[in-house]
# Entry
Amino acid sequence: DYSKKDHIEIGVVGGDGIGPFITKEAQRVLEFLLEDDIESNRVTIRNIDGLTIENRAACHRAIPDDVLAELKQCDVILKGPTTTPRKGDKWPNIESANVAMRKELDLFANLRPVKIPEEGVDWTFFRENTEGGYAVGSEGVNVNDDLAIDFTVTTQPGSERIIRAAFDYAQKSGKKKVTVVTKANVIKTTDGKFLDTAKEIAKEYPDVEMDDWYIDIMTAKLVDPKRRQQFKVVVLPNLYGDIITDEAAELQGGVGTAGSANIGKKHAMFEAIHGSAPRMVDEGRAQYADPSSIIKAAGMLLNYIGYTEQAEKLSKALQICSEFEKKVVLTGRSDGGTGDEFANYLMETLSRD
Amino acid sequence: DYSKKDHIEIGVVGGDGIGPFITKEAQRVLEFLLEDDIESNRVTIRNIDGLTIENRAACHRAIPDDVLAELKQCDVILKGPTTTPRKGDKWPNIESANVAMRKELDLFANLRPVKIPEEGVDWTFFRENTEGGYAVGSEGVNVNDDLAIDFTVTTQPGSERIIRAAFDYAQKSGKKKVTVVTKANVIKTTDGKFLDTAKEIAKEYPDVEMDDWYIDIMTAKLVDPKRRQQFKVVVLPNLYGDIITDEAAELQGGVGTAGSANIGKKHAMFEAIHGSAPRMVDEGRAQYADPSSIIKAAGMLLNYIGYTEQAEKLSKALQICSEFEKKVVLTGRSDGGTGDEFANYLMETLSRD
Ligand SMILES: CC(C)[C@H](C(=O)O)[C@@H](O)C(=O)O
Ligand SMILES: CC(C)[C@H](C(=O)O)[C@@H](O)C(=O)O
# Structure
């Protein structure tokens, strides 16, 4: 419970590509909203440099040791997008900084809220964030040139904690319904365990309804405006969460519009779910990148550390500015305004009420 | 090449639930279109009974031995939906008949065409159909009560044959573009092999463009009318194919609207991609089930065995009747017409031109 803490350390990680540009704007907004408590030293905002692809490549680590040490000193982290090296491109084959951070800080719950207000859609996805095909040690083997094997890992405690988080939230938020998504008809052992665990936990929450669907039919249901309203809280193993939340964010208006919270027992990290868009930087258009997704993530961070009033204000101001955002900061188009102008406009709006 | 064959054996499998009802209509249409060649004994249509869930449960086999023997005698099979047992329901824990048939008959390529004519969308999905989490021996282990592991298997020959099929089709159809979908940034060994194999094969087809996307962003792209037109031929490992084709079918108008071809070197099986809808049977509404998806599958079958003219006629007639279908055979609603009436109307339309 952060409200009882004397001091809160917020780390801000710029990341790659457009990351430092949009993160800077989000930091300005945080500083604006937390001004008094920064003044009084209750809150410190610390810039953490060095999580760049150049640095990671140079030391051949997903997260350089000194950066990891700094991250571990923070209570909460706001993170810009990081470039994931791909086979065949110029970077060495190191793990995604994102995936590594989730594992190193044990950020087991990935929360992604998605809203389609005009349809009354208000989903909260609870993606398991450390297991499945992403688990430590699941790297797989090339048995020979002809045969490759990968592993999927699901643990009982790992399933339990994310499923319990989803049920707790469903109960407290009054949403009172949890949908479990697996492919337990085929991926029987691991997804079977996840689904069985959910069925057991559901018994402890008699006032929360539970249903379950397979991932294939779930992607179809989300496309259908008549059927998607039925979903409230959705809990999924890592890979399905990865897939479904991108689809859902697109339905909300684009993967660039969603924020994502990565939450563990000791740390929490907040980020935009879009990528680092290196092309925008190459083309000299980085200052036009839309910071609204990472600012939304900053709002989730504020909420998480107990600054709910500020989070609420920010959310309202973002709503007000979203028209402006659509018209002026046309994502990545240099005929619109810059991210800086957007943040200024947002802060003006914030000071008005 | 079926055009050179003296005799073609078509097996028709009713399956479960609404399966026998809709399959019967598709069989009538096949008999109507192949009348002369059935008369002359060039084509035989053979009914294969016994692939019902009751039977499979009784002998505790995904496919009873006698049924499998009969299936193996057919060149091509038209199959109604079969019920997949789920943990917790009344059936024993046997494998999906579908998945078993794909493996037993080595039907390695699952082809699913999806069209959104008003947008100019004309996708053909090539889903690998025997490997990944579906492979023989990938059943997984419960290491102990706390730890479950599943395996994902990708072979070089298995990847090669499906990717080659996709490139061949892209070249011959004039579509000239193949999109490869994986999650090779995380599922590095198996998906990495699939993607690497695709890159190698692409070199043999200099006139076919290739691009690749991760499965998460691909589900998002399909939702966006502005970005989905770029896709033509898409090749994917088994599980991603399962997920994406359901989403795509829904975009076309519902999972009930797509047919699916499962193709191997020796056999081929054609089916609707919707389920067996046991509830419709329980409620006495099975005769109202819409047979158009399995009739589309029958059209794919005709095409495959060289009756391209008949397939073309059928496709046009289905187009003409689709308005009727929407108005009268309201899928599963007993205020519409029956599947039988729809098939009659379709055959009337077929005889008219
Ligand atoms: C970059 C990638 C490894 C990552 C994931 O798969 O988790 C991303 O898609 C996400 O959803 O945060
Ligand atoms: C029933 C199920 C096992 C099957 C699959 O996952 O392949 C189905 O979803 C399909 O797409 O044919």
